Amino acid sequence: MTDPTPPAPDRLPGRLPARFPGWQVAWAAFVVAVFGWGVGFYGPPIFLQAVQASRGWPVSLVSAAVTCHFLFGAVVVADLARLHRRFGLVAVTRAGALATALGMLGWALAAEPWQLFAATLVSGAGWAATGAAAINAIVSPWFSRRRPAALSLAYNGASIGGVVFSPLWVALIAGIGFAGAAGLVGLAMVATLWLLAGRHFRDGPAALGLHPDGDAAPAPVPPAAPRLRLRGDRRFRSLALASSLGLFAQIGLIAHLFSLLTPVLGAGGAGVLAGLATAFAILGRSLLGWLLPAAADRRLVAAGNYGLQAAGSLALLAAGGEAVPLLVLGVALFGLGLGNTTSLPPLIAQQDFAAAETGRVVALVTACSQAAYAFAPLAFGALRDLLPPAPGLPGGSAPALYALAAAVQLAALLVLLLSRRAGASSAARSAPPPADRAAGRIPHGPASGRTPAPGC
């Protein structure tokens, strides 16, 4: 007698993959993040030194080129969602890898300042196509319930990129020159991302007949909502402001932390602590990604993350430049929140905005925060130059930098706490009909007792 039960969807021969490929996509996004951050984020500070040493140009001029790199990247990121819709993930990712490689060569071969600034436009565009908003666009279509874990996995590539590429750039530039290093790394990046994009980013889950998280049945789609005018939306403005403040403090402190710790711990000890911060960043992001409850208020979680980093900055301040245990504690606390500062805004956007708006929100929040942190190293450096040196520490007042970082982090915390009430009221005005929520079309929002915002 023939078994009337049809085969499970994931076993239909020649039609559907035997295993849910979403996690393979997340691992591919991890590799994109390794190259994206390793070249586009951690590379420019090292390029600054290489260009200044070889050309003899003023440090201020080359520093302005680094800022230009990040600022133009912010302009491209703001339009990234539209580029993905028009050209697709494969083409944009491949173009980003090519732009990064060509931009790096431009940095290495620039004979005049205008050529250097032209190269920053190309490298900045490449960074935009392989950075935070791009990773979210790659991973998010495949996951809903498991999105925190999937994004945590993918964004950990950013930390690995810093661990691998920071020393690799130094070694390659010393061994084969800046142009040789740029050519070798650029070729590896283009070849790797070209293949990965073609293999894993060509089809989304819908094209394969699959559903997010590998679920057997599709989630009902809520009725289409009118396109949000984000400029006047308090949820968007508060998220963009908090993310900008948090990353401004984070990048500003990271840029100067090594030189502030070196007089106390030596170069070796400062390097170990820098590595400790990265290790704790991976740990903190992984724990949050796997343990974050589905119903958790993600704005509250992000506020706690900024509070954790502020506690780290205050521990560094309390160390007085001498108490090594407090220095270690401060770096560990600061590091625990390091990765989540990048990965939490997309998760907040998933909870606060409709699915159709999430990509645009993430891209614009990323653009705003990137435009803000582009000036952070300059601002923190100016503070070091303006204030008298602290005893035993060169180039400015370390306590003032730690205090500034803590103050900005606490400001980000306050913005998120205050925005929870605004977000709830905005959500109440745009909430879907009760029948939609009852049918399971809209996942529950923050466990605050208030009406949840439309999610995805």
Automatic annotation (TrEMBL):
It comes from Paeniroseomonas aquatica. InterPro entries: MFS, MFS_trans_sf, Proton-linked_MCT. The chain crosses the membrane at residues 25-47, 59-80, 87-110, 116-139, 151-170, 176-197, 239-258, 264-288, 300-320, 326-349, 361-380, 400-419. SUPFAM superfamilies: MFS general substrate transporter. It holds the Pfam family MFS_1. The keyword Disulfide bond does not apply. This is MFS transporter. Residues 426-456 are annotated as: Disordered. Residues 426-441 have a biased composition (Low complexity). Keywords: Membrane, Transmembrane, Transmembrane helix.
